[in-house]
Amino acid sequence: MLRIKGLTKRYRTGDLALKGIDIDVPDGQVMALIGPSGAGKSTVIRCINRLVEPTSGTITLNDTEIVALSSGNLRRMRRRMGMIFQEYALVERLSVMENVLSGRLGYVGFWQSWARKFPQSDIDEAFRLLARVGLDHMADKRADELSGGQRQRVGICRALIQNPELLLVDEPTASLDPKTSRQIMRLIKELCGERKLAAIINIHDVMLAQMFAERIVGLKLGEIVYDGPPDKLTPAVLTEIYGEEDWASTIRKADDDAEPVDEVAPATPSIERDRLAGLT
Amino acid sequence: MMSDAIVIPKKVWQRRDRKTQFAVWLAWLFGTAVFVYCFQLISERTIWAFVLDAPAQAVDLGSRMVPPAWGYIHYLWRPIWDTLNIATLGTIISIVIAVPIAYCAARNTTPSVAFVRPVALFIIVASRSINSLIWALMLVTIVGPGVFAGIIAIGLRSIGFVAKLLYEAIEEIDESQVEAVRATGASPAQTTVYGIVPQVMPAFAGITVFRWDINIRESTVLGLVGAGGIGLELNAAITQLYWTQVSLMLLVIIATVILSEWVSAKVRHAII
Fold first, then answer.
1. ipTM of predicted assembly, 2 dp
2. pLDDT reported for residue A256
3. Nearest residue of A to residue B181, measured between CA atoms
4. What is the pLDDT of residues B79-103, one digit of tens each?
5. Residue B2 has pLDDT above 60, yes or no
6. Closest of B131, B129, B128, B149 to residue B227, by C-alpha
7. DSSP secondary-structure letter at B193?
8. Which of B181, B187, B189 sits opposite A102 (nearest CB)?
C-alpha cells in the first residue's frame, strides 16, 4: 500500500509543481493519473522513487517512509519500485538481455555487474519474462534494433524483474501508435493482475485511461481535481481537468468497451502471442 | 466589367530593404579596401626578385631530390618504428589520464561543479594550449633526448584533446537512460557502467583512433628537437643537404600516415 500525504514540490525555478497531494493506492490497484501537460503527473511519479526530491510531505510504501531515506536505504527502496518510461529509456547500445538484467543491478555487486555475471536465477527469470511478453528470441538483439512496441515490452520486463511492490509508469504509450498503445496498456494491466501489483500510470490519453484503469485521478496545476472510477468521468469533470472542449466523443460508452481484437485474443492465445512477438 | 475594374496592386518583394542593401555594399567596400592596403604593406617588405626566382629554385631542389636514395631505407626502419611507438604509447598514456579528467569535467558526472570541474577544465586548457613540439623541447632538457621525451610530450599534449572531446560526449548523453538505470536501485558506479559507458563508447573509440592518427603525424617532427623518431634522421639529412635521403623520408612518412588513416577509418567504421 502506497500512501502519499501532503506531497509538495517546488522546483528551483520557483514553480510550484505540486500543492500538497494526498493519494492512497491499495495493493493491486491500477490507477491512472490524467491531466494536461505541466499538471505535475511526472513529478508525482518521480517524487515516489525520488528521482525528483520532494520539497515536503510524506510518502510511505508498505510502512517504509521514503522521503527521509539515506542514499543507501533509498537504493534498497528503489529496488522495490519498478519504473516504465515514456521513451522506453532502454540503454540503446546494450542488448535486450542486458537491459532486462539491469533491473537486478540493486541486488548484485559492482564487479559482478561489470562482468555481466548475474545469478542463474536472475537469468532464468529474465528469459521467463521475455517469453511472457513474446521477446525471448530477441534476447541478444541490441535494444536500438527493436521497434517502439518491442522496446516498451523490454522496459516492462526490466521493471518486473525487480520483483517490485509498486509499478511507476510514466506515459507508457506517448511514443506508440494507437494499436501498440492498447497492447502495451493491456499487457501492463494483465501483468499487474497476475502479480497483484499496484501501479500508477501517467497517461494523457483519456480513453486509454478509462479502458485499462480501475481508478482515475485527475491532476490540474498540481492539485487533485478528480478521484474516482473511470465511468464517473463526465464531460463536466474533463472540463474541470483540461478546460472547455467538446468531450462527448472522448468519453467511452458502456457498449463499446472492447474492440474486436480484444474478443478474439483470449480464444486464440497463439495469435495473441504472435501479435505481441513484435509484428507491430 | 467588374473584373476589369478591380486592380490588385502588385506587392513588391526584395531580399533586402534599401538600408540593409547599402550596409552590405559598405561592408564589401571596407573589406576590399583593407585587403588592398594589406597587400601593399606586404609587398613593400617582400624581395620580389626572390619570389620570382622561386619556381626555378623549386625545380632545382626537386631535381636534387630525385631519385630518392632507396638504399638508405634500411636505416629508416628503426626510426619509423620509434615514431609509431611514440605515437601509440603517448596516446595510451593520455587516455589513462584523460578519462578520469573528462569524468570530472563533464557537468553531469563531475563530483563537484564548484571545485573539481574548474581544476579539470584548467588541466585540459593547459595541455591543449602547449604544442607537442614545445612540450618535447622542455622534456628533452628535463629527461634528456630520446624516445622517452617524445612519448611524454605526445601524452601531455593529447590529454587535453581526448579529455575535452570525451567530456563533451559525456555531456551529450541521453539522461533518461541513466535515470532508468538509477531507478532500479543501482549504485552510482553501476549507473556509470550501465547508463553512461555504453552511450559514450563509440565517441571514445572514435576520439582515440583520431588522436592516434594525429599523434603519428606529430611524432614525425618531434625528432627535430631531439625527441626521437624519424624526425631526428630528417633533421640530420636536411642539415647535411642529403636531399635524396630527405625525399625518401618524406615518402616513408606519407606511407605511414596513409596507413594510420586507413587503420583509424577501419576502426571507426567497425565501432559506429
1. 0.83
2. 46
3. A102
4. 889 899 999 999 999 999 999 999 9
5. no
6. B149
7. I
8. B181
Domains and CATH numbers, chain B: 81-271 (1.10.3720.10)
Q: Is residue A105's pLDDT more than 90?
A: yes
The per-residue pLDDT for range A185-226, each reduced to its tens digit, is 999 999 898 888 999 999 988 888 988 999 999 998 888 988
In angstroms, the CA B237 to CA A185 distance is 76
Q: How many CB atoms lie within 10 A of CB A256?
A: 7
Retrieve residue A79's grid coordinates.
529496488
Structural contact between residues A85 and B164, judged by C-beta atoms closer than 8 angstroms: no
* Mean pLDDT within B196-220: 90
- Contacting residues of B for A168, CB less than 8 Å apart: 183
The pLDDT of residue A263 is above 80: no
What average pLDDT does chain B have? Answer: 89
pLDDT in tens, B169-200: 999 999 999 999 999 999 999 999 999 999 99
Q: Which residues of A touch B (CB under 8 A)?
A: 49, 51, 75-79, 81, 83, 85, 87, 89-94, 98, 102-107, 110, 113-114, 155, 158, 162, 168
Query: Quick check: helix, strand or coil at residue B221?
Result: helix
Nearest-CB residue to B194 (from A49, A91, A168): A91
pLDDT at A270: 42
Is A91–B179 a contact, with Cβ atoms under 8 angstroms apart?
no
Residue A58 reports pLDDT greater than 80: yes
Closest chain A CA to residue B174: A89
Q: Compare all CA atoms of chain B with the CA of A158 and give the residue at the minimum distance.
A: B184
d(CA A143, CA A153): 11
Asked whether residue A264 carries a pLDDT value surpassing 60, the answer given is no
C-alpha cell at A214: 480501475
